[in-house]
Fold these 4 entries.
Entry 1:
Amino acid sequence: MFFMADINVRDLYRKEWINCYSTEEFENEYTYTGNDLGVTFSGEEIYVKCWSPYADAVSVRVFLTGDVKTDTKIQDTIAMTKGEKGVWSAALSREIFENQYYDYEVRFGKNIVTACDPYAKAVGVNGNRAMFLDLSVTNPDGWDEDRNPNQDMPWTDMLIYELHTRDFSADESSGIKNKGKFLGLVETGTEYTQGEITVKTGLDHLKELGVTHLHLLPFCDYGSLDEALEYDKELYNWGYDPLNYNVPEGTYSTDPFHGEVRVRELKETIQKLHNNGISVVMDVVYNHTYNEEYCYNKLVPAYFHRISEDMVNSDGSACGNDTATERNMVSKFIADSVEYWAREYHIDGFRFDLMGLIDVNTMNEIRRRLDNVRPNIIIYGEGWKLDTGITKDVDLATQANTCKMDRVAMFSDNIRDAIKGSVFKEDEKGYISGEIKDVEELKLAVMGAPEWAQTPAQVVNYTSCHDNYTLFDKIALCNPDISFEERVKQNKLAIGIVMLSQGIAFMHAGEEILRTKVDSNGEYVSDSVRSCDCVNAIKWSDLVKPEYMDVYQYYIGLVKLRKDTELLRFPCPKCVKSAVSFYETDDVHVICYKIEKEGKSVIVAFNGDDISHEIQIKEGLDGYQYYVAEGKASATPLKSVASGTSSLSICAKEIIVLKK
Ligand code: CA
């Protein structure tokens, strides 16, 4: 008699519940600390548990498949029993139910809703039903021996490459078979040939470039693409719309219908990356959910989001809702989820989307949990200060609060905007385009010391990422009248500043081959979140053109130089301060500094101007050799400085690096 069509989650919201969720009374009564929410296998039983303190009844409904469209027959309905702290549980026979699918039917008064399990670890197509899957069957051979290849690497040694899974392989010129799939990230021997020239693509390209960490845009199950459809070049999404936080996205697997396939394929992919010396960073989006109909909101109405007494969702994320991370059971859910990815999938780092919406206590709990899994898992995020309706008096994980968190790094918009101009004003120029207003900011940035940071290991230096325009397009937009060659020089200057700065080095995939995002009207695309493959895919065929190959070689040279030069990668602020000194230059466009320690020294010079300049080096340059000059970068010396020289001549938009 309770069976009704699914209702809108809003119909379940009660003002009196919303008003008490963040009170001490509620949290004392209902905070559950067990680690067994969701499904656990034990002997012949499958245990199912969910947290739903205000429900009047909860049942598990079982189905043969995970597809709600084609399979509506309920095989079984098992009533759950309410226990302590608002947790409902049931025990099911493993023999009968293993590998079948389930959801929860939850009753509040006369309202009934169905919900996926927020703790689901495997789901059917489109993530509506969870699966009773014993995860050990998804482990590839050798999984127990799988390790982070850069486990002991100091954070300031890391070189992070930010990529969308699909962009890597979608273009025909990738030569990759598993287009748009996890497995496409790890095909080897792929290349593109035109005439006499052959270039490496895919994983071989990544290895050639020399990055240490592959940061993948969100790959937990997201909501905006229909997984049941055939691969469609027009249907694309970045994936910042999480649906099931503990499950891989189905469109990246070769079979989204069978819950175990995506789990196994992602593990295989991570294992192969590890075997090729590359660590994996996961972009995680706990600050908001795909929409309000999020499954946890059906189990505990309106609990998961920051919502006002008038039932208006806080929207600091600009995605329609903000997660109430400060509530105990949300905080626990996030920490459980991050820990799960680190343990089950061997993830080596986490990038927190809009981390400034997450509270400091939750970030510190995540840090503590990850330290218990493995040492040295990197955490970084967007510490932007955003307006959000926080429900408790707690601090948020913004740049200003870096001092309240241990080993949580943040993106430096200071260096990003100083280099190329504000990302919010498309024609605003930065240092590389001759603008001098942020030169002092840039000097702090190259020392890994924007005002909010205590140490360079907290600072992620970058000039572009998936957001906004690509670096090369931004340069074009604010310099419409200059030639391609001149734009290339600015692009090289931009990445040079990032690679030579103290801190963590980060780059956007394709930056090294002048990535551009242009739509069918010839317009540059900012925020290509829903653009087609033709806009987003990396065009490997560009690499055969000499001017693109030249830029790529410059990136490779800088990466090698950074790896070879300890003085560019100090882990602590004291080392930077005692080693770095700036030279006076006769023009504000010219920045020049020396890094010196224990008899070794490096001199770095940037010229953002359109004309050449001379830099006086009083103590002389005897014994120095050039590693970056005249548009080339190398880990081995390009040439020696003539003896008796005490000045450096630096051309327009040029970088010079000397080492002794
Ligand atoms: Ca999905």
Entry 2:
Amino acid sequence: MPTKESVLFILKEEEGSYISGADISSRLSLSRTAVWKGVKSLREEGYEIDAAPRLGYRLVKAPDLLLPSEIRYGLSTKVLGREIYYFDEVVSTNDFAEELASRGASEGTLVVTERQIGGKGRLGRRWFSPSGGIWFSVVLRPKISPLDAPKITLLAGVAVADVIKEVTPPSAGEVGIKWPNDVLINTRKVAGILTEMSAEVDRVNFVVLGIGVNANVDSRDFPSDLHPGVVSLSEAVGEKVDRVAILRTILRRLEEGYLGLQRGEFGPVLTRWRDLCETLGSWVKVAMLEGEIVGEAVDVDEHGGLILRDVSGKERVVHAGDVTVLRKLPHS
Ligand code: BTN
């Protein structure tokens, strides 16, 4: 652990009380100069640290940033976030993570940024990613068949939706998932998931799981074509949310689901996904590259495909597309 991070963790443990430089240096077996240098570089990163003669140092305020040292403090995962790459700005965390993964980055590597200038959404769309959001990607190396890879998207949807549900008051409206993996609050999109994979016929090389949460952003700043369908967590909660705590919790939930998947325990995730999914039971129109199809969304299969039943009762599974819920039933 870098010196500044060990100094930071000690200051955090003191919960805003003073601790002397001598105490820090003996606890870390570091010289007083090294401790002072650690404090100096923390201040340069934006930490407000008070220094008082005879009392020592006191952490007054941490910057509102997704810094690796903030994420790591209290992170209880074993794999996700073992290695963290942090940017103030990057084109796309998915692209950066993919580059790292193709050069051998280890499982769990996390790429996180304050903003993206070329954020990517599903189906080749752009993803608006201003400061205040939580934009990140993780590198996974699952020992599963490429056919099972969509399960990772499903478990990520459940992890994100459950964490968002926990931080949002019931008065903000229902938290749910719109197939395939839009997380909604009161039918407006608060988070999205983009899973990209490098695989051979029978083997996954790596998966980049990209997640974007509209945390402390203003939905009115979104491009006008996106604005009506978008909401941020701060708008739903009524105040700014703790982005670092939310990211840590999402990582922990993701890891639980992911390790479960590797052990062959996917049933509970699918059950939870079905509970959260707002699309099931509705008549929908799905716009796909090959055209449109209309049907009743009756279920999701274990690969994440949406099972549609048309008016004649014929079922069809759809794997990618955009869903619109129809108000009027096709036969009414
Ligand atoms: C969607 O709903 O269309 C998926 C959006 C995924 C956005 C995230 S933000 C972090 C990661 N990097 C990207 O470029 N995209 C994903």
Entry 3:
Amino acid sequence: MNTKYMQKDHNRSEGFIRDYPLYSYDEISSTNTVAKELSESGAEKGIVTALTQSAGRGRRERVWDSPEGGLWFSLFETVPENDIRKLSFFMNFGIILAAINTMKQYLDSDTLKVKWPNDIYASGKKLGGALLETFDGPAGKTVVTGVGLNTWNGSKENWTSLLDLGIEKVPNSEILEKFIENLNILREKLYDSPEELMAGWEKYDLFSGKTVKVKSSQGNFAGTVKGYSSRGALIISASSGGIRTIETGEVENVR
Ligand code: BTN
């Protein structure tokens, strides 16, 4: 048990989900930040949840609004340096597929989509997203995967939530347990099969065959989405000609 947090945060309770130690807080800055700190003080893996985050973070240094009602959590795991690529890949794409498989229990699966690199959409609006961070830990590399799912929090323009979609309320703890169960199933089946994982992911792709605008280190350009590589890169047929493979970036729909 990590006494540092027991002394500092009276709002923490502990438990387990499957074989992950669970650290649940009322309010913290960010579950990703606390997951990093826990791993730095020796915890090898775990799940951190918070009812609210005072400094929730999204990708590209965006602020992630985290009011009470939503499901805000981070999974962390320390692995030897050699395994980091595989784990990061799985955590990026497996985590969003696990979110899809979990949301399928509440929403019609035809309404659910994935948006590269790691967002989940429902009925054309963002339902959630993931923020992956890696750190050098005392026993190897730590991968922290933060997941934000708009469950019972109100939402904003272009965002939706289970509440907005009229779903009957279930506790976030139940959704989290189902999520971890689904993640474990995917991990057992597809951890060593990146092509299959991407094929599963593509079934829900928001952009397949669509014309999109890409913002990446290769510049900003338009093109048509052709698919994904087995390493999770986006393959675009650029409007100006040629096929481009995008490892990191952002995509917006044009039509
Ligand atoms: C994105 O779509 O930009 C990713 C959002 C990730 C938000 C989650 S909420 C739990 C975890 N803690 C954070 O500060 N961020 C992630």
Entry 4:
Amino acid sequence: MTDGVAADALRLVCGSREQLDRAVAECPGRILGVLAYGAVEPVLPAGDFPRAWVELPVLGADAWYEIWVATRPVATAHDGRISFCCDGSLLFGSLVLPENGDDRLEATAYAAYHEIFDLLDRKGYPELLRAWNYFPKINDAGDEFERYREFNMGRHEAFIAKGRIIGEGSVPAACALGTPRGNLVVCFLAGKMPGIPIENPRQTSAYRYPRDFGPKSPTFSRGVLAGEALLVSGTASIIGSETVHRGDVCRQLEETLENLRAVIGQARRFGFGADDPRHLFLNVYLRHAEDYPAVHGRLEAEFGAMAHVVYLQADVCRADLLIEVEAFWMRDT
Ligand code: 3EB
């Protein structure tokens, strides 16, 4: 690896409340942050780390916790509206902004990313590696455009305002999903050193999508290789820049798997080597809960029962997408 994120700098633990309690007990002072998914606010243990409730139904469980763990001692702090935690190499943060319709989503997204970049530049972790974006009613009409497109406009403008180039190596791996209600939730992982950007040869880079998909392109890469981990962005049934297999979740899943293989294949060209499904974590977002049994069956067959997979009901950012899958994979040791 040529980048500067320490080889063993980042771990992910996922699961129910039990896994969370165990991780908190076993890794005191090393929890970077927690994303807690659930239709009802999941219980979060006391502890000085950034945390965010992602208001999405978990399919087959009540709650699911994603616990990002550092291998070195961490320090937690608050700055403006951001809670963050850093270990000298990585910084994890969370920011929750009310999304009450008073402000335009474009302005709220701009404010969120402006504040994040400001923090990262001041604290010396300038490299945004991964961003998680959740906000209500992603496919609804906004003031002028679909709300996802307005989110893209604000996010894009914040990159420009903070002097960030929109292109390879300066955009993070990301996901953007719609919740039924609630706040704009942005969680992020940043580094002192850059990761290696990964694109998918089957797809147009998202930051080069044509204008048909909105006046300002989404600012994310298909993946980022950070030390020993591959962070794969939300991946869907898109070829080039077009959605394929409209209305057919099974075929969308197959195309999504093909895209995931392509991203992982690109990462392998940069030296990433992982085969162990026990170190693979997937978040599967389904627009319709009734697709869960079919998708679950197919993914068990693909990855076996050893991978860590959670199924969440969410609106995917294009109205014609029925499924999106994101991944985190630790390389074999
Ligand atoms: C896509 O490939 C599907 O706007 O941050 C995937 C991952 C998608 C991240 C984002 C959007 C985002 O265009 C959508």
